[in-house]
Write a structure and sequence with these properties.
Number of strands of chain A: 11
Number of strands of chain B: 11
Strand content of chain B: over 45%
Shape of chain A: globular
Shape of chain B: globular
Number of helices of chain B: 0
Largest sheet of chain A: 6 strands, mixed
Distance between the termini of chain B: 37 Å
Strand content of chain A: over 45%
Radius of gyration of chain B: 13 Å
Structural class of chain A: mainly beta
Order of helices and strands of chain B: EEEEEEEEEEE
Helix content of chain A: under 10%
Oligomer: heterodimer
Radius of gyration of chain A: 14 Å
Largest sheet of chain B: 7 strands, mixed
Order of helices and strands of chain A: EEEEEEEEEEE
Chain lengths: 113, 114
């Protein structure tokens, strides 16, 4: 099975930086995703890591260490609109059956003025 | 990435009845996924639906309660059977978009059982 852990809630100030950590245990690792979800909406794709290292995409960066089962999402220059839940999700390879995506519990980020 | 049309967007149902949720994808996909998101919670995978074979259910979910159809490579349905208030949740379908653009989600079905 899988175990994906991330903090429940974080608060930060507009313009600041926040780092959301995610640890995971899985058997057939085939990539890690970060999603953003605003209340009442479907999740939207933010980033993808399958190799170790940092992926940067504008104000958002994501890091992966496969040996440590660890990832983080870094949000820079926080804006009020960044207040949302951030979901860490791990893709497992199911052999010939394809892949399966499993989500962590999500981290609710509140950006204050 | 793929575009998914999911309906209904919301419904209020009486306990003991069933609701069927539909997802239509604008391209052919091998696997479709059904998730549940309970209030204030993250997404929990219900089952994986392959065309031409029975769906694979996750622990805690059974076919009698959540029957799934996958008649072709662009369409799937999830039925929530014999509903109770505990089934009140958002149900989402998803597909794995090519090119590592991440999984694409339908807009969700907000179900309230009274």
């Amino acid at each position: 099975g899988q175990n994906i852990d991330q903090p429940t809630e974080m608060t930060a100030t507009e313009g600041a930086i926040v780092q959301i950590n995610c640890t995971y245990q899985t058997s057939g690792f085939n990539g890690l995703f970060w999603y953003q979800q605003h209340a009442g909406e479907a999740p939207t794709f933010l980033s993808y890591n399958v190799l170790d290292g940092l992926e940067e995409k504008g104000r958002f960066s994501s890091f992966l260490s496969r040996s440590k089962g660890y990832s983080y999402l870094l949000l820079k220059e926080l804006q009020m609109k960044d207040s949302a839940s951030y979901l860490c999700a791990v893709r497992d390879r199911l052999g010939a059956a394809g892949n399966k995506l499993t989500f962590g519990g999500g981290t609710r980020v509140l950006v204050k003025p | 990435s793929a575009v998914i049309s999911q309906k209904p967007s919301r419904d209020i149902c009486q306990r003991g009845t069933s609701l069927t949720i539909q997802c239509q994808v604008d391209s052919q996909v091998t696997m479709m996924f059904w998730y549940r998101q309970q209030p204030g919670q993250s997404l929990t995978l219900i089952a994986t639906a392959n065309q031409g074979s029975e769906a694979t259910y996750e622990s805690g979910f059974v076919i009698d309660k959540f029957p799934i159809s996958r008649p072709n490579l662009t369409f799937s349905t999830l039925t929530v059977s014999n509903m109770s208030p505990e089934d009140s949740s958002i149900y989402l379908c998803s597909v794995d978009s090519p090119g590592n653009f991440g999984y694409t989600f339908g807009s969700g079905t907000r179900l309230t059982v009274v």
